[in-house]
Amino acid sequence: xxxxxxxxxxxxxxxxxxxxxxxxxxxxxxxxxxxxxxxxxxxxxxxxxxxxxxxxxxxxxxxxxxxxxxxxxxxxxxxxxxxxxxxxxxxxxxxxxxxxxxxxxxxxxxxxxxxxxxxxxxxxxxxxxxxxxxxxxxxxxxxxxxxxxxxxxxxxxxxxxxxxxxxxxxxxxxxxxxxxxxxxxxxxxxxxxxxxxxxxxxxxxxxxxxxxxxxxxxxxxxxxxxxxxxxxxxxxxxxxxxxxxxxxxxxxxxxxxxxxxxxxxxxxxxxxxxxxxxxxxxxxxxxxxxxxxxxxxxxxxxxxxxxxxxxxxxxxxxxxxxxxxxxxxxxxxxxxxxxxxxxxxxxxxxxxxxxxxxxxxxxxxxxxxxxxxxxxxxxxxxxxxxxxxxxxxxxxxxxxxxxxxxxxxxxxxxxxxxxxxxxxxxxxxxxxxxxxxxxxxxxxxxxxxxxxxxxxxxxxxxxxxxxxxxxxxxxxxxxxxxxxxxxxxxxxxxxxxxxxxxxxxxxxxxxxxxxxxxxxxxxxxxxxxxxxxxxxxxxxxxxxxxxxxxxxxxxxxxxxxxxxxx
Length: 566
Prior knowledge:
Radius of gyration: 25 Å
Shape: globular
Structural class: mainly alpha
Largest sheet: none
Strand content: under 5%
Number of helices: 30
């Protein structure tokens, strides 16, 4: 009876039928239903009420959450010493199963509170909750919620500079999900690990397929919130990895449409995607004024008002990040500087902002905007802010994040362009261009070519300016930034009269465009084939033999195709 009532309440919550959800919760007197109520209140924007209920229930369960920085510091240090060993990952993935029903309920409720705390910028509460759920998992055994807890702890370890331990613990969290999750995958843990930890050691593009699999698994389990997190992380990392804008816009439309079918298109999670979606539409030329975030995805003024009413600070920061990018890209420095000024004066504290993948692009554009403002106004303060941003970015790269190396190289070249000779500046930009090309960052490669062309133009070398402006235009066309191409050709028409230089195509560029539904279908086909092979092979040698046999592989493809069709 309790399981059935819980399932009905979760279904009502998923469908945004909060009234029915509240009635079902009221029918069950036991505490086991309170995590549904807390999640329901959070989705309605009633954050204070959700935290009040959640913290009261945890107190009744004997898991009162402490407050203040001092106990938090000691909790983090204890967990750091425990999980920094090289064997910590194996110990986490091999944890025994949690059987204490009271602790199971506490862990489940802590997971809901952790998500709400992250969404609403309650950094201390989030860290307290993460430490508590990890301690419970280490002391009483692991559960299906523990994979998210250890993935979250990975973000904490990365934030305090222990990236190796963070990566090991994050990978162990995914192995825990394989043991305890019905679909062998926890979508929320996948989203947290790949958005906040994985990029510190591996390229962005390696996260795309795991996030698609996490999205599929979350939908299979009916966990629409986890699917939303995976889809938002997928779109953000696809943009950072240089996926063509036409493909990205198709993906964003597909996600928004599918989330709308679950009445989640206006949920706090999906709202994180909206500013980026509108920015990509602007770059692709689907808006009359590319510097205003109003169009198919959102109305800039109305969206900001809605986020302020929900106290959704992360979505508002995403709006500022989008304004920085379109403002700088299209030369509207008023828009760009107003957005960047909110970040430039603050030293980045990874424990507060989180070690997520968007941090690098935020620091990059902040530095580029401050350098351009110094060029225009000669104010030393702007130069100091740019140097401070570069110093922070360099510090994070030393922790092992190679994805941000090309960004720092562009900033250094731009800094040199203020004082150095033509030869030195060209050499610095060529290093940055080669690094972007090696990583497949076509959008940054185009920007570096554009900035080098403008440098030559300012020094009277129209021939070199013509060459590199042509390269930039070709790259912007390949990326799909039609609005940027139109702007360059309108503003610098005289540079394009004899441009014939082809752009070198790199092997790391992405495949031809596929819609989001086609990607999901292709990913699910591989998943079915893999599951079929593993199911029919009881030994590793037999599995290798089956995989190496082309006849068996073809039969599996036909079988999986029939299953999908059915």
